[in-house]
Amino acid sequence: MSESKQTKYVTAGRDKKWTNGVVNPPIQRASTIVFDTVAEKQQATINRANKTLFYGRRGTNTHFAFQDAMTEIEGGAGCALYPCGTAAIANAILSFVETGDHILMVDTCYEPTRDFCDTIMKKMGVETTYYEPTIGEGIRDLIKPNTKVLFLESPGSITMEVQDVPTLAKIAHEQEIIVMLDNTWAAGVNFSPFDHGVDISIQAATKYIVGHSDVMLGTAVASEKYWDQLREQSYLMGQCVSPDDAYLGLRGIRTLDVRLRQHAENSLKVAKWLQSRPEVDHVRHPALETCPGHEFYQRDFTGGNGLFSFVLKTTYPKATTALLDGMKHFSMGYSWGGYESLILANEPKSFNSLRTVANPNFEGTLVRLHIGLENVDDLIADLEAGLSRYNALILEKEATA
């Protein structure tokens, strides 16, 4: 009888070889690992890639427990750890490309992913082609003989397009192309990457895995075919994390299910309330039909979270500022996935520097929300007050026009 995913979040990574009989694996800090005999040292050297104490950069029992847990909840053959999500993305790509290769990158990717491709990859002689997130079968036309990686992010950053991952992965595998996915939105648990054709699933564990906005952490879980290369290449590039951060990631997994369910419940209530507002053009929440790719969300995902966007009918920066500046429960910040609510706004022209082919088909200001664990009625009241401030400036503008 297989465990439910809720049980798995509680039990993953708690093997007695890591816990020594206590509930949580202890924080084991180490740089140097010492050996009493030549035979012990030789044995550790032989098994250094297999969760054996060898040298601090290879990890301690705390790291091994967290890696086990991430591998267990996402699937795959192993998990590499990085000091942040951007490092996980960059090093996963670097582990598999060389000069002369070509990458297919979804145009709605996380902004630092684009910056990495446009600077570091370009400098290395690796070409990047950006593609429309809803391209589907059309991805065939963009594949080149030297295409090495197809990179997906679903839903997409800011505009929330959900991709047809199985179709894209199937086409990529026909050409022996490695499929990588930024799986942060689903926290690795509401979308099963290896069941849908992904080879390497990447997360900013900074967000929902840790869940408390106090740790920078990245993970990449790989299939058996690519695990050895990802592990060893990342090690050679010096990637490692603090055991304290690994411990907090492991602790975050224990409450991941209940947190995600509450985030999802709260966000859907707010999203549906926003749909009723006259100022709102449409809401981009994957669980709603108004979100591009909603049908793939329904088919492939098992749950939601607190992150979505909505688009206002107009764009007037002064009014948007009035909306943002007076919030009581929403703060402005460049992250999400913690217990707190966040808000950011993007004017349509800002996408010109962020997109190549997936330019937004709307004219109003886009507002991205992360709905936290506060009382949802308090959050709605906060947004209602913000929209009142917004409307006052819109009316003032119209009166003087």
TrEMBL record:
Its main location: cytoplasm. PROSITE patterns: CYS_MET_METAB_PP. Coiled coil: none annotated. SUPFAM superfamilies: PLP-dependent transferases. One of its GO terms (molecular function) is pyridoxal phosphate binding. InterPro entries: Cys/Met-Metab_PyrdxlP-dep_enz (IPR000277), Cys_b_lyase_bac (IPR006233), Cys_met_metab_PP (IPR054542), PyrdxlP-dep_Trfase (IPR015424), PyrdxlP-dep_Trfase_major (IPR015421), PyrdxlP-dep_Trfase_small (IPR015422). The keyword Lyase applies. Keywords: Amino-acid biosynthesis, Cytoplasm, Lyase, Methionine biosynthesis, Pyridoxal phosphate. It catalyses: an S-substituted L-cysteine + H2O = a thiol + pyruvate + NH4(+); L,L-cystathionine + H2O = L-homocysteine + pyruvate + NH4(+). The keyword Amino-acid biosynthesis applies. Its cofactor is pyridoxal 5'-phosphate. Pathway: Amino-acid biosynthesis; L-methionine biosynthesis via de novo pathway; L-homocysteine from L-cystathionine: step 1/1. One of its GO terms (cellular component) is cytoplasm. CDD domains: CGS_like. The modification N6-(pyridoxal phosphate)lysine is found at residue 207. PANTHER family: CYSTATHIONINE BETA-LYASE-RELATED. This is cysteine-S-conjugate beta-lyase. It comes from Vibrio orientalis CIP 102891 = ATCC 33934.
